[in-house]
Amino acid sequence: MQVQQDIKQIFHVPDMNNNTIHLGHPLILPAKDRSSAYNFVYDKFRSKLSACKANRLSHAARLTLIKSVFSSIPVYYMSNILFSKKFLAKLTAIIRNFWWTGVKEEQTTKSLCLRAWADICIEKNIGGLGVRNLQAVNQSLVLAAAWRLAKEPQSHLAMILKAKYHNDTTIWRARPNKPKSAFWTAILKVRPLLISAAFYQIFDGGSSIWSTPWFSE
C-alpha cells in the first residue's frame, strides 16, 4: 500500500477498479473469461437493433446495415484481444437473425435459414454476400499486430513486450510464461499462423538461425 501511495503522489493518478476504461478498453479483465469484460459490445449490438424497424427493411437494406454498422462495431476492440468463440457466436447470432427475420435474438420462434451462414460470409464474386466473418476478422487483426511486432522489433510497443515477456529471445521463440496480458496472450495464440506464413530473406547475413523461424520445431 505504501508503494501505491508513493506512486500516486508522483503521478497523481486515481485508483483503478474493475470498471476502469482507457481508450474504450477495460483495463482489468477477469482471469477466467476475459471476453466477459467486453459485454458492452454485445449491448451495443442489441441497442442498434432496438433503434431499427428491422422487420420493415428489405433484405438489401438489412445487408447494408449489417456491413456498415454491425460488422464495424467490434473491429476496434478485436485488434487487441482474441474474443472467445462463445462470445463471437453471440454477436454472430444477432447478425444472422437480423438478416433472416429482422427481429431480435430473443425471439421465441426459430428462424428459417435458407443457407449456411458460412456461405453468406464468402465474397460476392464466388456466390456469397460478403458479410464479415467475425472470428476471421478478429484473428486477422491480431495477426496483423503480431506481424508488426515481428517486422519492427525496435518499435516502442515491441520493446516493451520484449522487456516484459521475452527479454532473452525474439518474438518467434518467446515462451508462454504466466501471467501475461490479454494482448500478449492473443499474440501467442496467432503466432503459429504467423510462423507458418513467414520466411526470411538473407541480405546482409545479420539474421540469427537460433531465434528466427528458419524451420519448424
Describe the structure.
The protein is flat. The relative contact order is 0.09. The mean pLDDT is 80. α3 runs antiparallel to α5 and α7 crosses α9. With 217 residues, the chain is mostly helical. It is built from 9 helices and 2 strands.
Tally of separate domains:
2
Rounded to the nearest angstrom, the distance between the terminal CA atoms is 45 Å
Per DSSP E runs of 2 or more residues, the count of β-strands stands at: 2
Q: For the report, how would you describe the main beta sheet?
A: 2 strands, antiparallel
User: Beta-sheet strand percentage?
Assistant: under 5%
What percent of residues adopt helix (DSSP H or I)? Answer: 40-55%
- What gyration radius follows from the Cα positions, in whole Å? 22 Å
Order of helices and strands: HEEHHHHHHHH
The mean pLDDT is: 80
Low-confidence stretches: none
Spatial arrangement of strands, main beta sheet: 1-2
**Helical region count?**
9
- Structural class from helices and strands? mainly alpha
Q: Globular, elongated, flat, extended or rod-shaped: what is the shape? A: flat
List keywords for this structure.
about 220 residues; about 0% strand; 2 domains; 9 helices; 2 strands; mainly alpha
Q: What's this model, at a glance?
A:
The chain is an all-alpha fold and 217 residues long.
Helices and strands, with pairings:
Layout: H1 2-11, E1 21-22, E2 25-26, H2 39-50, H3 59-70, H4 75-78, H5 85-100, H6 117-121, H7 134-151, H8 156-165, H9 182-197
Antiparallel strand pairs: 1-2
